[in-house]
Amino acid sequence: MTGRDEFTGNRTGTPPTGADDRPAPGRLPALEAALADARDLPDGPPRQVALERLAERADAAGDVRSGVDARFALIEAYLLDGERWRLVEPVRRCRAAADHRPGLLTDVETGLLLRYQRYAVEAVLGTPRVGLDQTRSLLHDLAHRVGVDGPDTPTVAELHCRIADHLGDEPTARHWYERWSGKRPGPSGGCPGCASARRAELLTGWGEWRAALDELRDSDGDPAACTDQPERDLVAVLLPALHGGEPEQAAAAHVRAYRRHRRERAAFPHLAAHLRFCALGGHLERGLTILTEQLPRLDRPTDDLAAMEFAAAGALVCALAEEAGLGRRTMPRRAYGERPATEPDVSTLGALLVGVASDLAGSFDARNGTGHHSGRMAAWLAERPLAAPVPLPPDDEPGGYDEPDTGGSDEETRPDELMALTLDMIIGVLDERGDQYLVESGDTVVGRWGSVVIQFRRAGERGEVLHARSMAARRLPATRRAEAYAFCNAWNHDRLLPKAYAHDLGEELVLAGDVATDLTHGVAPAQLTVLVDAAIATGVAYAEAVAALP
């Protein structure tokens, strides 16, 4: 069991400031303007710091509404940057403000805060940096607000179940599982299409192989409405199918799911299951290839739990490969930070990964006051192949778990067929246009069109937001700040795209624009072509307008 869930993060979901977007009573105009400037900052630490300071200023000035708005924006920034463990304090402060002043939040904000509270509770599963007492307090508060018969009652039961399982308290986890199983998630309960996969992962951790397979087959969710599907279910079926004597099914599921998971940053938590399939299914050469390919992602993991499980699964592949006589094979490892590039052999890399997994497991256990994760990782490392390897389906042909045969290959995807946004899709559109570009670290695609530089990337925790940032080549001196702001305000008043803003670098101003499109339900290749074309056309027009300034 991995103890994770999804998050859809995008700026279009930022809560309104009040009825008809008018400033709420008691708001200070200076803080409202500062919040708008902070939201315009690029993603990353600078925006987080600005929002943190703004929230503190609002508290000091007694502007409760601006404090809540700043913390909502801060929560969104943390989620976009994959730092869910930071949510506890801003969620707690927003909750306290709303309780102290009834009517402060709109109905939309009230529902959104409930969802953020769930995210904050779940953070304990991914990292030892969140305290158990804080988590329990938030969970008990959430249960009180939901009530015994509310639509989010299954959400509370799920959280109780997953936290108990995380602590190694299987009897309590099974108690809450019975109250969660078969229930559809409420408004704050996460993706209904992935609920069965989350339950199947729990059952797999308890050794209930057949029950896990039945859970996936009897799902009453709507996988078609989730952009993580069908790969989310496919990866959940790998180990139950192997243990259940269905290696062919597991092999087909692995090949189909890994086609997508090999490149998606948000899919890092699923890689441990792929590596364990390779180890237990006897596909050691493929396991070493995947480990080599994915090892750089261990330097910047999505969370500590994912890093621990990836390291343990990789160490298992290395141990079995060493037993098979492959221990002296070298495994290239890229440079990162101050660490130089190296080429350790399989045995050395395996020992290194054991150390990573053991250290992280120890951190979890020290926080939890148990030895559960150390024991779980030791059990993984003691596993051995379950059956003779079966042939894997070709990577370039369909044949996944319960996948209908359309009579064509993945290369024959219809231009109107919805699919999850990927880096390859963005690159494919630019290739078809004949554009020149570079792919930078973090999977950001950068190109120049005339007097504008445009960056394309996938934002959101699942990479479901197409984000295009245009930066005009011409920069203005800082002394023309008022003029730059006036230009951006006029542009935003008269045009829809891109959203224009001026970024202050101290001595000069960068005039930039953003276009963010939420593709939670997928995007067709033809639609993506239109979106990229529009982003480039509007970005060029914006840069030309900047160049035309006196």
From TrEMBL:
InterPro entries: Put_sensory_transdc_reg_YbjN
Stretches with biased composition (Acidic residues): 394-410
Segments of this protein annotated with the region Disordered: 1-29, 388-413
Protein name: Putative sensory transduction regulator
Organism: Micromonospora taraxaci
